[in-house]
Amino acid sequence: MSDTIDASLPRQVADAYVDALIELDPITGTYLGVPESARRLPDFSPAGQQALADLARTTLDRLGGAEARPGADSDIERRCARLLRERLTAELAVHEAREHLRAVSNLHSPLHAVRGVFTVMPTETEDDWAAVAARLRAVPAALEGYRASLAEGLRQELPAGPRQVSTVIGQLDEWIGTDGGWFADFAAGGPDALRAELDEAAAEGTGAFATLRDWLRDVYDPAVQGAPDVVGRERYRTWSRMWNGTDLDLDEAYAYGWSEYHRLHAEMRTEAEQILPGVTPWEALRHLDEHGQAIEGVEETRAWLQGLMDQAIEALDGTHFDLAERVKRVESMIAPPGSAAAPYYTQPSVDFSRPGRTWLPTMGETRFPVYDLVSTWYHEGVPGHHLQLAQWAHVADRLSRYQATVGMVSANAEGWALYAERLMDELGFLTDAERRLGYLDAQMMRAVRVIIDIGMHLELEIPADSPFHPGERWTPELAQEFFGRHSGRPAEFIESELVRYLGMPGQAIGYKLGERAWLAGREAARKAHGDAFDAKSWHMAALSQGSLGLDDLVAELSAI
Description:
Elements lengths: L9 H15 L1 H6 L14 H22 L7 H22 L13 H9 L7 H30 L6 H15 L4 H7 L7 H30 L7 H13 L5 H26 L5 H11 L2 E3 L1 H19 L13 E5 L9 E3 L9 E5 L6 E3 L4 H7 L4 H10 L6 H4 L5 H17 L6 H26 L17 H10 L5 H13 L6 H20 L5 H9 L6 H9 L2
Parallel strand pairs: 2-4
Antiparallel strand pairs: 1-5, 3-4
Helix pairs in contact: 1-3, 3-4, 4-10, 5-6, 6-9, 7-9, 8-9, 11-12, 11-18, 14-17, 17-21, 18-19, 18-21, 19-20, 21-23
């Protein structure tokens, strides 16, 4: 960044930060659609992580000067400055806690970032595939930097949780495979003119996976045996701030999770009675797994989900949202093998050359019950993640690239997506008991997440009025059992989710707590405007503000 940044307003400081971040983190560059990033991977070593921290500190210094300049007190500059300061401060707290030295997770780690970036790279031309080959050749150095960080963590007695490690070793086994591995399968789609180069580069990438897998199995895993899988209150507070953009009252949040659990349980019993009288909600869901509406075939399911999103856009545009043409494009995709069990979304590039995409992990299945798809795709696609994150990209020139992309606060985005599920219920899109029970099951999963994520990491006491082990203290084993009893999802999904929560402390609570913030902001705006409140205008204004932490979200939504 040049010295002229000191004389800029906050949005310019924020965007200069994005430019500098892309230099250090070309994976972020690819997600933003920067072609120059395509051949490189980040430095995941301790030195590379220190460079990111230094950039954050330098940017915060420059932001202080920018906030003092005339014009910095406008709403748009103020929101950007608050977000940038909050995000960089939270990221530095995570860095100073040395969390990057034990970053092992089944979903969110340098290892997953390296594999995942190939799924969003352009692959239309020979030049695109040449960039793929170059990036494949960069995999060994990137993973060696990651290994160096984990080794330093061991030296400093900062182990990752054993469940994370064993799960990731299993994922690497699957990615390596027995016939060339995931990289070979991916590179097989390239042109014949680059066949030899792509095959050699894919083999280098797979070899790097195997080298890391062997080190994790033979050196790291034995070294972390006996370490706790939970993080404790202090580490949890640091991560919770990172994921939620606020310093939560964790005990209040835990109590809120239980209150939602009891409310949703009552609603679920009502819907279950309509499906199969006299059974529990989860018995009704197991009945639907066998006898309910379902889609047969992986490609058929992908196409059905595309149709569901297209229908939602057609129904919502002009009535509850005003959508730009480029925001209306979203693609349904099948997740690559070896993904975690949960569906996910990848946002469009800022120029929309790559559209937003939803991803369905099949977990080896070929039959998919409808009750488990509809509400989930309202969450991942439309009107959930896609409408929010694509709208941010659409208005990035009015905000800053930072607010529209890398400044995203997880609880804001996940809260909106859960709010979107509820909105579709409010608007009458869940047309039968099957779909509504599926929606309530998804809501219950998010309430259970608040309970067990906070409960097991802080080892809290289970309340006396709980139907499950009252008076005992949470452990991961109790959390997995409780989740299994209160979910219609299969056992392998439950296990994958629990490992996710253990490896991403504080992230899973942001769905319910973020939804609560969105609902509170809407209710305050509705009360302020009375009969003049217009939900369509409110939705579009809310989605056009860019990212906000929960500290600011309710206040900003209330003022619309």
